[in-house]
Sequence to fold (354 residues):
Amino acid sequence: MSLLQKLDQVVARYAELQAALSGGGLDSQKFVAASKEYAELGPLVEGVNAWRRAEQELKDTEALAADPDMKAMAEEEAVALRKRLPELEQAVKKMLLPKDAADEKNAILEIRAGTGGDEAALFAADLFRMYQRYAAEHRWKFEIMELSDTGIGGYKEAIATITGKNVFARLKFESGVHRVQRVPATEASGRIHTSAATVAVLPEAEDVDIKIDEKDLRIDVFRASGPGGQSVNTTDSAVRITHIPTGVVVSQQDEKSQHKNRAKAMKILRARLYDAERQRLDAERAATRKGQVGSGDRSERIRTYNFPQSRVTDHRINLTLYNLAEVMEGRGLDQIVDALIADDEASRLAELAA
Fold:
């Protein structure tokens, strides 16, 4: 189906909904559904009408240019319209792109040290702070859920909830393996080491997004432990929840209350199960979405942070920047995020035109 045919269908559907809503023959449930669809289609139909009006204006203006008295003014107007038309067309195409239902959701950020021992854990902590600062830049709330530290400033694992406007939309391309190249503080000979950490950004799931049956859960309680395994409290407040059908296991021990730890663990479990279902559906669509930014595969190396050269490279879109300090401070990360979103949008627009 061509783009113009798709737009004709949208305009026809909008008119159909308008007639149905003004006709008064819908029951309350159908009226609510029709009103929602009508409101969602409104901006797209306005964009289509603006584009078509501009096309008609250009034809009228080009016809006016045949009149010697009107030629200069008409040609000036035609130049402006020819410049505006591609912008109107692009705006309409963007509105036609299917929305990701999770884009407006909050996110759960999980970072784990990968290969590289203590240096990998230190890098994982650096990444965690980078996203914490990035959240502050966007006035998002950053709540630490779990920290498993190494005792020397590194994190084996760190989990946080990030709450705010369009959090998942801006962070969803951060999932994957992040690699660092630098001289560790413990390296006496000044040799550059390569280490890695894994980042996972999951959309926070509500009860309506994913149903979890209590009988599918095994819940164990135990005494929380600190670095080196020492006991940090005297009650069985730590909670481990196993989702039996999938084998997903979540542990929480940061809170002194068993009830609070269970609530946090359920939030993380719900997000992981929801993300697994999204990835399954994405895999089914992968044949028609070969151009997407990354595969969402947690094992895919997506970015390298080279400290000696102050360089950061995103391998998916071949973007290299030389402002590593700004990126690590959170201020420079938007430049990468914006480029990833633009690349994803461009590939989906190319599909739409195909």
User: Anything to note?
Assistant: The first strand starts at residue 107 and ends at 113. The first helix runs from residue 3 to 23. The radius of gyration is 26 Å.
